[in-house]
Amino acid sequence: MGNLRTKDLSKIGYHNDQLRSLVIGIASKNFKHYSKQQLLDLLVEIKNNPEAFLDNELTAKIAQKVIGKTDGPAFKAYELRDEPVFCKTYGGKGIETSAKKQMELANLLPVSVQGALMPDAHMGFGLPVGGVLATDNAVIPYAVGMDIGCRMALSVIDETDGFLKRFDYQIKQALKNHTHFGMEGGLDVRQEHEVLDNLLFREMQLLRPLHGKAARQLGTSGNGNHFVEFGEIELLADNALGCLPAKKYVALLSHSGSRGLGSAIARHFTQIAMNTCKLPRHAQQLAWLDLDTEAGQEYWLAMTLAGDYAKACHERIHSNLLKALGLEALHVVENHHNFAWKEQLANGREVIMHRKGATPAHAGELGIIPGSMTTPAYLVSGKGVGDALYSASHGAGRAMSRQKAKESMTVSAMKKLLSGAGVALIGGTVEENPLAYKDIETVIAAQRDLVDIQGRFFPRIVRMNKE
């Protein structure tokens, strides 16, 4: 097959991005022995008379797409349910009304099966942050979120808490030299990881131009509430971390996601969902992709890759820092909290489980629930509660918008707050000041039926995006 390009398809009337992506994928698989001109001639025939190609296994998908674009609207309209599906709310007194209403709207979708709202919930895009939604064979890009695969990673280190004081300078230098935050740029040393060899970067049209940026941003963190921090973790007796004794250890904790790769995937497929799944205007952000469709399958593959990439970023961050400081990890705990999974409910029904800022908490599953720069993060194990859709909160949750946090806290006041808590901050903004978040103790207490506490991590040296 000749080197078929999207501009060649545009010249013969294939203007839709999704259609062009489909054509190139099918052509590379089924028409390898065609010359470029032979293939273009065939595609012109399909475009001009698609019905004639519906019975041919090799051309049927292209013909169906052409018919869908030329003969009528390539979308289906849906109405909302009269009553919402069952949704259990935890810590409801501390959740703003707007977040509850946003969750109720999601529970009215015709594909919704069950919902749950975690005690850290606050308003977001699509689902509220802290929202969990089980759907029937449908994935909602905005219910996964823009930062696909945003996650936590904790390395418990074979050092006592005294290490942090003795090597304070070296730790700060390592954080400055081996982490990078923000939308642009990357680390000085190019990072390597097998995730960059994933065939999807070559096979999926959307992903091909994103490979270079993914390579540049590997091992870096975003802005906002993303962080990399050293601190001390106190493991409780009979903890679930194998054979680690109950005592204090040094630990490294990071929070970030899939960077520009995940954002581009989210934007692309959200637009496809909103173009093909028509809902009442106030619910349009919750448009979904049927997993039996080409777009649904493509999103699932791309989402999975973004999750793997986010995991790879954390692996590089932890590896680089530990190597620079001559440290070793005794145990690593990590979890996604912006993702969708295929799971089963207690009754055996298979669903697509969206966790938008929620920690997976199946029975015995380990996770990390952070507080703020001056409050502890909790290492927990799930209890597998069905009403909570096997989930827990993903943090303390915001008590203030970023704008309100900026208006209510000065830089000098934040420095005083951090100093009083024994925390050193590199970068960071007043938008992320500790008072901008809910009380982590209240949030943890509201989900005592969902998780068992295994340990508490206290931040000591924190790196965040610069102002």
Automatic annotation (TrEMBL):
Pfam families: RtcB (PF01139). One of its GO terms (biological process) is RNA processing. GMP binds at residues 225-229, 337-338, 370-373, 394-397. GO terms for molecular function: DNA ligase activity; GTP binding; manganese ion binding; RNA ligase (GTP) activity. Binds 2 manganese ions per subunit. It comes from the Bacteria. Its cofactor is Mn(2+). It is an enzyme of class 6 (ligase). Its EC number is 6.5.1.8. InterPro entries: RtcB (IPR001233), RtcB-like (IPR052915), RtcB-like_sf (IPR036025). This is 3'-phosphate/5'-hydroxy nucleic acid ligase.
